[in-house]
Amino acid sequence: MISVAGLVLYILIFYVTSVNPARVNWHTVFWGIALQYVFALMILRTQWGYDIFKWLGDRVTEFLEYVMAGVLFLFGDTWYQHFFAFKVLSIVVFFFTFINIMYYLGVMQAIIKVLGQFLAFCMGTTPAESINAAANIFVSMIEGPTLIRHCINDMTKSELHSILTSGYATIAGGILGVYITFGTESPLMIRPFLKDMTHSELHAVMTGGFATIAGSVLGAYISFGVPANHLLSASVMSAPAALAISKLSYPETEKTKAKKDDFAKMEKSPEHNIIEAASNGASSSIKIIGAIAVNVLAFLSLLAFLNATLTWFGDRVGIEGLTFQYICSYVLYPVSYFMGVEPDDCRKVAELVGVKTFTNEFIAYGDLKVLIQNRKDLGNYTDFFNTTDWFWKDENVVLNITGAVLKGGFISEKSEIIATYALCGFANFGSIGITLGGLGALAPTRKSELSQMVVRAMICGNVACFLTACIAGLLYKPF
Q1: What residue ranges of the chain have pLDDT lower than 70?
Q2: What is the reported pLDDT for 273?
Q3: Are residues 386 and 342 in the same domain?
């Protein structure tokens, strides 16, 4: 019931703050939430649905392990000493190359067309909005808008806001996508539609981009120990959520020029053969992994400086252990609580949401990885020694027999799953400038309009992920 209350609360807040509440299309909002619910019901409440996605997640994990052939050749047996640089970023290169080959072969277009038609049929959205929402399950945020570049200059404010928000609700956008836009031949699936889009359609395109995980970083989060099956389901569930929250916040007020035959207008790959597709994919990923590396380095450094500063001030006013995470654990407590997180875990999940929102999701998933591993280590300890001889000390767990300390403690499996869904988005303040730069380059005449909507879009993108997390909290049960 708490998760249901969270859903209702977010819908009411965004209805009241909508740019035009009277024009909200409740059909789209209802079906967006309904599709999420049905999909989550299948994955989280049925054994066969869980088994299917568990099998898919295991196969993806197994597939990504082939990257070790290249890792061992380049970096040798000591690669694990630099796990993030040598394993995580190598997975991004491998998967990005694979996706580019699938795009050249036409496989991606076929899958995206079917998914886009399904979303359009259920939710009543236009072809470009629906194709983009489906495409962003596999490719990144700026890649989607690049596909519809020629339509941006003629878009309404509602369409522009839709594109901004959709981008902020997915993982693969912004930090990664801008570099793709400026330096590579990325997929341009819906470029022919941009010049005729309304503001609401463009806003929906952005929302769809930010609400899902692109394949190029899916493997990176799996390598953190985040459950692959839930990452896959979160990415798919966020596509209708993004459209729903976009149309609630920025409803359609103009007459669209979209036609039913627009589904056949996706652009083809620019490569001439499969070797060129593989080579271009690998080369394109250089800027992606560079963007990931420098952003993680920069934000971790800034976060350490901020925490040191806060701790210094806290010590002088009698507040021990004052950090950015500590502040977020209280300020964002209601966010995690209304997603259905276990009460004892709300502060830790609130910390993760704060880190993701104010820095980026890579750092947040890295912190989640520690909590997941700690829970597993505690389980191994209690099983091996057949004991519950451990205790909490501040925020850490101390294992009496071995003397080991699990720094940061742990959270329940349910809370881990909810956090996986909540963090599955690119909505953070650091991405605002990147998004404006990327879309401003695509449509320089619309940059002022984009800048007026970018904060609203970022918030909408975050909430699209929170809606998915609410439904996960509502329906989750262990198997």
Answers
A1: 136-195, 209, 212-217, 258-267, 430-446, 479
A2: 86
A3: yes
| Spatial CB neighbours of 304, under 8 Å, sequence gap ≥ 6 | none
The domain boundary, picked from 420, 439, 457, lies at 420
* C-alpha to C-alpha distance for 324 and 6, rounded to whole angstroms: 25
CB 19 within 8 A of CB 158: yes
DSSP run (H or E) holding 257: none
pLDDT of residue 175: 33
**DSSP code for 86:** I
pLDDT, tens digit, 9 for 90 and up, residues 71-93: 899 888 888 788 778 887 888 88
Pairwise CA distance, residues 148 & 145, whole Å: 5
pLDDT tens-digit map of 112-171: 778 878 888 888 887 777 777 777 666 655 444 444 444 555 556 666 666 556 555 544
What's the CA gap between 424 and 260, in Å, rounded?
A: 31
C-alpha to C-alpha distances, 409 to 328, 336, 374, nearest whole angstrom: 17, 18, 7
Q: In terms of domains, do 67 and 215 share one?
A: yes
Asked if residue 436 and residue 307 are part of one domain, the reply reads: no
Residues 195 and 330 in one domain: no
Q: Is 272 exposed, middle or buried (0-12, 13-18, 19+ CB in 10 A)?
A: exposed
Q: Are residues 228 and 356 in the same domain?
A: no
Going from the C-alpha of 371 to that of each of 374, 409, 415, the distances in angstroms are 5, 6, 10
User: Which of 420, 437, 460 represents a domain boundary (last residue)?
Assistant: 420
> Given CA atoms 446, 447, 452, 458 in this order, what sign does their dihedral have?
positive
Question: Domain range for residue 407?
Answer: 295-420
Phi, psi of 307 (to 5 degrees): -65, -40
Statement to judge: residues 390 and 442 lie in one domain: no
Of 134, 111, 118, 125, give the one whose Cα is nearest residue 258.
125
334 and 282 belong to one structural domain: no
| Domain count of the fold of the chain | 2
